[in-house]
Amino acid sequence: MRRFGARLHYFVRTALRGLTASPVTSTVAVATIGVCLVLVGAFLLLLRNMEDLLGDFAGDLRVTAYLEAGLPQAARSALALQVQGLVGVESVRLVSEEEAMQRLRAGVGRGAAFLEGLDENPLPASLEISLAEADRSAAGMRGLTQALSAFPGVDDVSSGQDWVEGYLRAIALVRGLGIGLGLILALATLLIVANTIRLAVLARRDELEILALVGAGRSFVSMPYLLEGLVEGACGGALALVLLYGLFRLALPGFEFGLELLLGAAAPRFFTGVEAFWLVAGGASLGLMGSAAALAGGLRE
Amino acid sequence: MSPTRRRSWPWERGRPAPAVSGGDAAVRMFHVSKSYSAGSFALHDVSLEVRRGEFVFLTGPSGAGKTTLLKLLFAAERPSEGQIVVLGRNIARLGHAAIPPLRRRVGVVFQDFKLLPRRTVEENVALALDVEATPRRRARAKVFSILKQLGLQHRRHHHPLSLSGGEQQRVAIARALVNEPDILLADEPTGNLDPDLTLEIMDLVAGAATRGTTVLVATHELDLVSRYGKRVLRLDSGRVVDDVPQAGLRR
Questions:
Q1: How many CB contacts within 8 angstroms connect chain A with chain B?
Q2: Residue B192, in any domain of the structure
Q3: Using the beta-carbon criterion (under 8 Å), do A207 and B116 form an inter-chain contact?
Q4: Fewest CB atoms less than 10 Å from the CB: which of A68, A114, A259, B104?
Q5: Domain-by-domain residue ranges, chain A?
Q6: Distance CA B232, CA B214 (A)
Q7: Cα–Cα nearest to A283, from A37, A15, A31, A32
Q8: Residues of A in contact with B102 (CB under 8 A)
Q9: How many separate domains does chain B show?
Q10: Does the pLDDT at position A243 exceed 80?
Q11: Which residues in chain A are closer than 8 Å to B134, comparing Cβ atoms?
Q12: Tens of pLDDT along A9-43?
């Protein structure tokens, strides 16, 4: 245990010495990693919010089946019962013509005066169908819509299916862009760290020669450099987190219109503690891999 | 001690037995050659044995092969031909992973000191103990003890470049000896020093031999060699041309 402590102390001390030996190089590396991760993080944040919105919206997803005019009350009730028995249906509520009109009145507010001029209620009765949790998707809605269309007494069926499908496509686009950009930026981060560590290895060639002379093995020589990469990556991740938070708080309100387009009325949220940890851990992993790549070619016995 | 017939090593079969005695050898070389380019040998068919605790000078003109021979002993180079056994390990067949443990048992001192300029004297010496993961308190005590023996305890927080040449070489010796190696190799350790410091450094190296460390010193300073009266291996053009035993001992 004391030997492990001694070794750890040496690795940490040497890594810190390496980081402070060329502060400009280390700072530039951390800053560049930070900027790369800000871009990746921004995409992740947008994706997260869009997925959240879809999740929230899914709870409100309903399919409305408009009934033919003049359908007797008994037939309506029987139809409601039949629909209730369909797969993927959680609940069915019968909305009469009168209730539909009341909702419209409440919805238009002061404009309701215009509705007074109507001779008769033009709104049809309908069945409002909530989907079971497992079927709250575009596919679930599509299946239910097709099933409902075949029922006698059903005039028309409407659902949020088109919107959901469009939104899913938008999410897929953002995710694809995010993954593509993420891969490119991850590669850039790897190269930056690898280059920084390679420079450090070159600058400390004499030290490596002496270490080899006194019997240091490859892992002993490598460990401080791996730690350096890890710390640079983690600092880059932390910097990205701070920058993202700053942008989220200060710059985001300026993009209200664009945000409404993507997120509707939902308030955007920042990363949770766990997500923030993973961003920093991601930076640290990239740093570790970058220095491992540099050492793979940079160290010889 | 009655002479006993040494068992032959596998690689010696079919070759004439080298003129070495058996027993407690620290170093054995059998028909060792080293060439860096075809037809040109830095060492040529060298066979020798150095017993544990023995002090040996390697002499000869520049290019005689002294440095190459030392490099072979701490596996900085591999032989082109022949076999080398150091502390019971065959260098010619040693895998990469086995080299560091061997080097921890072999201290090396160079003419140009090879100290890390940005580390203090204490840190430079402790490097050999860091590699062995010696617990910190124990390492600090050992470093202080060796620096005190070498009269450098008051310089332990200094950086090498602020020390004189003699002091820097003493630091290098301290680093080579701090983990009590079985073998100490010194390649022209006094080449950069004035005569007074030369004797001071050589006394330190010789002191290691009296404590049981096998010492091989490469030098071209014949005055120094004759002063100590130790065994001398003279090399020329990569061959051992003379093996003079310790003064007073039969060859």
A1: 61
A2: yes
A3: yes
A4: A114
A5: 2-56+165-298, 62-159
A6: 14
A7: A37
A8: 215
A9: 1
A10: yes
A11: 3, 6
A12: 889 988 888 888 888 888 988 998 898 889 888 88
Task: Tell me the pLDDT tens digit for each residue of B97-113.
Answer: 899 999 999 999 998 88
Q: Which residues contact B100 (CB under 8 A, 6 or more apart)?
A: A212, A215, A216, A217, A220, B131
Q: What's the DSSP call for residue A124?
A: P
What 3-state class would DSSP assign to A127?
Answer: strand
User: Can you tell me the distance from the alpha carbon of A47 to that of A54, in angstroms, rounded to the nearest whole number?
Assistant: 11
Q: What is the CATH number of the domain that holds B167?
A: 3.40.50.300
Please check whether residue A64 is in contact with residue A159, taking contact to mean a CB–CB distance below 8 angstroms: yes
Tell me which chain A residue has its CA closest to the CA of residue B117: A207
Q: What torsion do the CA atoms of A241, A244, A248, A250 make, to the nearest 10 degrees?
A: 110
Is B133 in contact with A212 (Cβ distance < 8 A)? no
The closest alpha carbon to A22, from A235, A196, A191, belongs to A196
Q: Is A162 exposed, middle or buried (0-12, 13-18, 19+ CB in 10 A)?
A: exposed
pTM: 0.70
Fold of A62-159: Alpha-Beta Plaits (3.30.70)
C-beta atoms of B116 and A215 within 8 A:
no
Q: How many CA atoms lie within 13 A of A17 on its CB side?
A: 13
